[in-house]
């Protein structure tokens, strides 16, 4: 297992206790790593030697802005064209292995921690040319264009972006932002949030942004609505707008998660 957690699939034995930590409520959902087995995977159109765990999709009355997948591509697999909806933007973040990304006719090799923002309308594809499995998070959103602004595709990595400490935290709480929050070209962000042991979100955040949180490393107690839930690497949390949230990272190691949020747009009423 590398630095970032990736599901391994398989199927629990018949002696395994049925009780798990999966929770579905009107305000939030928790999908623990233990339920991401072989039998809940889906194939993806256009991909070969590939399977996916679809862990979020727009649902009426719940989160409505995005979908999120965990995608696993075996050796020689991939898709020359991955995105079929021209109005959809995306982010991929590699958690295991390495994959070739072809974007606008240019080839990029993404390894663990590799990050790509894929602008709506740009052609891109993936190929696993290694001998091992590659796994990545794939977040998709219908891009809301704003006159005078246009988001551009780019490739970077976790290692290339310096985390920013949150004010008055002495570095106990940091955010790795791959795009500038003030750039109105972007109607979403996919960041990495990091807590050192003892670090906290010291109030229940309650806001309009929907969230998808995939735990990359460590464990913590996370407040979701009225419930404190213990989460660990490989778990996924899905929050609707205005669901209160907070965090306490008890250690012993760093707690990090990949965070989706929608932002920078006016609320549509007509």
From TrEMBL:
Residues annotated as domain Cupin type-2: 70-139, 192-258
UniProt-recorded Gene Ontology molecular function terms: ureidoglycine aminohydrolase activity
Signal peptide positions (record): none
Enzyme class: hydrolase
Keywords associated with the record: Hydrolase
Alphabetized InterPro entries for the sequence: Cupin_2, RmlC-like_jellyroll, RmlC_Cupin_sf, UGHY, UGlyAH_cupin_C, UGlyAH_cupin_N
CDD domains, per database record: cupin_UGlyAH_C (cd02212), cupin_UGlyAH_N (cd02211)
NCBIfam families registered for this protein in UniProt: AAH_UGLYAH2, PRK11171.1-2, PRK11171.1-5, ura-cupin
Protein name according to UniProt: (S)-ureidoglycine aminohydrolase
Origin species: Arthrobacter wenxiniae
